[in-house]
Structures are given as structure tokens and as C-alpha cells.
Automatic annotation (TrEMBL):
GO terms for biological process: polyketide metabolic process. PANTHER family: ESTER CYCLASE, POLYKETIDE CYCLASE SNOAL-LIKE DOMAIN. Pfam families: SnoaL (PF07366). InterPro entries: Cyclase_SnoaL-like, NTF2-like_dom_sf. The lineage of its organism: Eukaryota, Viridiplantae, Chlorophyta, core chlorophytes, Chlorophyceae. It comes from the Eukaryota. This is SnoaL-like domain-containing protein.
Length: 180
């Protein structure tokens, strides 16, 4: 009888232990997902919209790779420091730049986040060689943010619509009609 209880107890314990491990794994996945989603939101709300560049030290890996898949597909921006410079340039050209996250989805298999966003800002300064238009610019995009094991963004693939002024610049009509 005692042996039977021990055997039964062992079976129950194994099932309980297995369930606990599964629960721990689920908690770890949910925690990882939560961190990635919150960092993606902070990337747009705090860094891009508010200019809180120091937050990039937590959100983004030092060796981050930035891929603008529509307007500069053959150029890769390397490093967090370059990303900070790029954000400063955009925030200088569009001082009231504000991003709004429309939708966000997490992929457990690739530990990545897909973010659909819109942005709006008044072009009051130069960006690249493009003179200010003094116009409100609106654009939208989808970003695929891939996270590393430290839950920092290691790569960004951005598919975005350009503002009217930016489209004119990239499509070669940057000498006439700006601001009109």
C-alpha cells in the first residue's frame, strides 16, 4: 500500500512539476513578449516623438542595423550612435514630430515586433539637402523590429510612405515646387 501511494505521489508530482515548468516557460515567453512590445512602443512614443534619445541605450543594441526598405534599400545604418544622429536630424527638421502606433504584433518565433505607425510633423528645417517646406507632413509605415537575447532592438526593417516633400526629393523633383 505504501509503495502504491509513493508511486501515485511520484506520478502526481511529475505531472505537477511538468505543469509548473510549462507555466514558467509561458511566463518567460509572456515576459519577453511584454518587454519587446513595451520597448517598441517606447521607441516611437518616447524616442521619436519626445526626443528622449537616452532611452535608446536601453531599447536598442549598440550594433543596431537600420534598413529603410523603400527609400534607401541598399544602405544600412549601423550602430545606435548613427540612429541617434538620424533621429536628431529628423527632430530638427520636424520639431513637432509625433508618431502614433496604430497596431503592434509580436512574433515569438523570431522574437520580433511588427509595428504599424503614422507620423506627423511640420517641416521647419533642412533634412539631408532638402530645404524646409514649412508644411505639415504626414506619412505612415510598418516597421519590423528584431530583438536580441537582451531584449534590445538589434535590427529595424522600415517600410514607409514618404511625405510629399521627401517623395519629391527622392524622386528627383527637388528643385522646383517645394513649399507650393
Amino acid at each position: 500500500m505504501m509503495r502504491s501511494l509513493n508511486t501515485q505521489h511520484s506520478r502526481i508530482f511529475r505531472r505537477f512539476s511538468s505543469a509548473r515548468c510549462t507555466a514558467r516557460n509561458t511566463d518567460a515567453i509572456l515576459s519577453r513578449q511584454h518587454i519587446a512590445v513595451e520597448r517598441a512602443r517606447a521607441y516611437y512614443a518616447d524616442v521619436w516623438s519626445q526626443g528622449r534619445l537616452l532611452n535608446l541605450n536601453t531599447i536598442m543594441a549598440e550594433g543596431h542595423e537600420q534598413h529603410d526598405m523603400v527609400w534607401q534599400p541598399n544602405r544600412v545604418g549601423l550602430g545606435r550612435k548613427n540612429m541617434k544622429r538620424g533621429i536628431l536630424a529628423y527632430r530638427s527638421a520636424y520639431p513637432d514630430l509625433a508618431f502614433r502606433v496604430q497596431d503592434i504584433t509580436y512574433s515569438e518565433q523570431t522574437h520580433s515586433v511588427f509595428v504599424a505607425w503614422t507620423a506627423r510633423g511640420t517641416n521647419l528645417g533642412f533634412i539631408r539637402d532638402q530645404p524646409p517646406t514649412q508644411e505639415v507632413a504626414e506619412f505612415a509605415g510598418i516597421s519590423h523590429l528584431i530583438f536580441d537575447d537582451n531584449n534590445q532592438i538589434k535590427a529595424s526593417f522600415v517600410y514607409r510612405q514618404a511625405s510629399v516633400g521627401e517623395a519629391r526629393y527622392f524622386l528627383g523633383d527637388n528643385h522646383s515646387g517645394l513649399g507650393s
